[in-house]
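Appendix C reproduces, verbatim, an entry submitted by the partner laboratory led by Prof. M.T., so that reviewers can inspect both the input and the predicted structure.
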Amino acid sequence: MHISHDCKNQKIFIDKCKYLKKVLVHFNVATNPTHTPLPSEFSFKPNEKQCDSKFCQKYQQLVGSLMYLMIGLRLDIGFTVVKLAQQIANSSNDHYQVGLHICRYLLATFRYQLVYNRLSNKSLVAYSDSDWDQDHEYCNSATGYFTMLTQGITSWLSHKQKSVALSSTEAKYMVLSDCSCQPIWTSNLLSEIGFDIPIPHLYGDNLGSLF
């Protein structure tokens, strides 16, 4: 992880370009950049055949590399990487091609950084969302959220919800509940070390769940 400072404008920049370059070289991705982390209309269907051990190992290396990038910096690939990780026990070539598609997306967005602006004076903010009824195999909705401080993203998460939501309102309410823990914990931590910040804001896009 590379961290740089702009002392004049009081900003901090974080990137993983050096590690990302190693990943792209290892998996021989140097052309055909794409601007979406997931191919349109792709459905994550389980592999009906048993994959051989060599292919499985290669797939696990790819997903592991992408997972390391996602956890440390690239929240924009979180949803797709989690979906790929769910197929890691018995993957198919289609799943592997999606992994390479993510690599081509990372090639197109190679210079993306996390930026923290001290002068922004922005308080702690959290944004949450979920899909509903998109996983036709297990019927579990996907939870996704991230938190921001000084206009920079500080934490993020994407995972399958533990129970099946019976409506979009219920799916959104579940993600609001999960997401609320993070800004509360962060604000408590900041208070303990001497930062007096306003009450965090938590945003969703479903009126029923907000009520």
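The chain has two domains: 2-39+46-108, 121-210. Additional entries are available on request from the coordinating office.
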